[in-house]
Each structure stands twice: as structure tokens, then as C-alpha cells.
Design goal:
mainly alpha; globular; two-stranded antiparallel sheet
């Protein structure tokens, strides 16, 4: 229940449908495929066809999608940042399936390792690619008519 979006009812549903023994599933990809939140992949002769997700356990899938919608509304959360990132290019419904897949993967690792959830933060993707984020923001400011001059921060001897 430490994952954003998962409360009592969703947790009970997932435990009832999936169980707590993760030895049944060799990897997170297997459990995602069983639940039906894995991305579809239909390619023939190099041409990508429908990427529809497969049918799986409908109760677990619905619970995960419900948790994903709640997690997408959270403020300053990794899952909300992931939702916004995917929804901008692929649409909100595909983004929900991606967030549900992430929640299931997190839950798998938590049950397998016996750990608690630690959020990566809303700015995880910006910190991961600092140069790319900087270029994108400079380009947006220049498109608005501003002139941008970047200066690298100078560390004082006391800060180092």
C-alpha cells in the first residue's frame, strides 16, 4: 500500500487474484503478460501492426488500471511524471496501461525482495537527461522570442 494509487481494496484484489508467492512467475514480464498489462507487439515483415494488449486476468487488470488513474493524479510522483510523459505522445489510455504495468512490476519486486516502495520523484526523467532537458527548454524559450545565454554554475570554495 506504499505505492501511490494502491489502497486497501486494490491491494486486497491484487493479493486475491495474484497471491503473495512470486515464485510462480519467473519474471515481471511473465506476471504482466498473465494480468494483461504488457504492451502488444504485432510486427510482420518489418511493418508494425496493431499493438493491442492481450486479454488477461480481468479483475487484476481493472484494479491496476484504477490504481494507475489515481497514481496519475498524484502530485510530485514518479508514476504521475511517467503518465504525463506517455500521455503527451501516445494518449491517456495507453499511458494508463504503461503506468499499470509499472505498478505491477514494482509490486512484483517488492513482494519478491521484501522491501518497501521508494518513489524516484517527479523530476526523475529530467535529472536522467540533463543536457536533453536543457536543450528542449532553451528551444522553447527561443521560440517565444527570448534570447537565452547559458552559464554553468560556479562552485564556491566553501561549497566544494
Amino acid at each position: 500500500m506504499s505505492i501511490p494509487g494502491i489502497k486497501h481494496r486494490v491491494a486486497w484484489t491484487l493479493v486475491a487474484e495474484i497471491g503473495t508467492d512470486m515464485q510462480v512467475f519467473p519474471s515481471p514480464a511473465h506476471i504482466a503478460s498473465w494480468v494483461g498489462v504488457c504492451p502488444g507487439n504485432n510486427e510482420s515483415a518489418g511493418k508494425r501492426k496493431s499493438g493491442k494488449t492481450r486479454k488477461g486476468n480481468r479483475w487484476a487488470r481493472r484494479a491496476l488500471c484504477e490504481a494507475a488513474w489515481v497514481a496519475a493524479k498524484a502530485k510530485k510522483s514518479y508514476l504521475a511524471a511517467q503518465f504525463r510523459r506517455f500521455a503527451a505522445t501516445r494518449g491517456s489510455k495507453r499511458a494508463i496501461i504503461a503506468v499499470a504495468h509499472t505498478i505491477l512490476t514494482i509490486g512484483y519486486h517488492m513482494l519478491q525482495r521484501g522491501t518497501i516502495y521508494q518513489d524516484l520523484g517527479a523530476n526523475y526523467f529530467d535529472q536522467r537527461h540533463v543536457l536533453r532537458t536543457t536543450k528542449r527548454l532553451v528551444k522553447r524559450l527561443e521560440a517565444l522570442g527570448h534570447r537565452v545565454i547559458l552559464e554553468s554554475p560556479v562552485l564556491s570554495p566553501q561549497a566544494a
